[in-house]
Amino acid sequence: MKPFFKEVLKRLAVSTVSTIIFALFSLLLLGMIFSSIMSEEEVVIQKDSFLVLDLSMNLTDRPSGIRLEDLTRQALLDQAEPPQFHLLEVLGALRKAAGDNKIAGIFIEGGFMPSGYGCGYQAVSELVEGLNAFKKSGKPVIGFCHTPTQLDYL
Q1: What phi and psi values does residue 138 have, to the nearest 5 degrees?
Q2: How many helices (H) and strands (E) does the chain have?
Q3: pLDDT in 10s for each residue of the chain, 154 residues
Q4: What share of the chain is helix, strand, coil (3-state, %, to 5)?
């Protein structure tokens, strides 16, 4: 009877170790697949490029969170909310573009699409201050809007 239990325990140990090795290998493989899917392509900026600032967005003073009601509305009604950008990220991008020698200027297009508490007058005025700071670098800011609202004029 003793050799029987030895054989059972030996097979159990081999099965446990092989299961652990398979699980680790699977996690490593899934991690590599997800990291390759989630990684962004590196954007190459050429000399004398213009930074395009599309105002067809919801500019907020706080970071956005993913809410379940937004996801269900988008899935059921096929209605997507306008893209939401955090004011500090946009201002940081403007500061970075002002110091970048490859950026020749900014081209602004579109009109704001406020949603919820986004695109308040204070957030838009801070964006204007950021654009004025960008102008101090000697680079032009060019804008185009088809049918502007009062918020777009600001």
Answers
A1: 90, 5
A2: 5, 5
A3: 788 888 888 999 999 999 999 999 999 999 988 888 877 777 788 888 898 888 888 788 766 666 666 666 666 666 666 677 888 888 998 999 998 889 999 998 887 776 666 677 888 888 889 999 999 999 999 988 877 777 777 7
A4: 50, 15, 35
- Rg (Cα) of the chain, in Å, rounded? 26
Q: Which helix (H) or strand (E) holds 31?
A: helix 2-38
| Rounded distance between C-alpha atoms, residue 133 and residue 111, angstroms | 21
Please state the pTM of the whole predicted model.
Answer: 0.62
Residue carrying the six token digits 């989630």: 38
- CA 125 to chain CA mean position, Å: 23
Q: How many angstroms separate the CA atoms of 93 and 99, rounded? A: 10
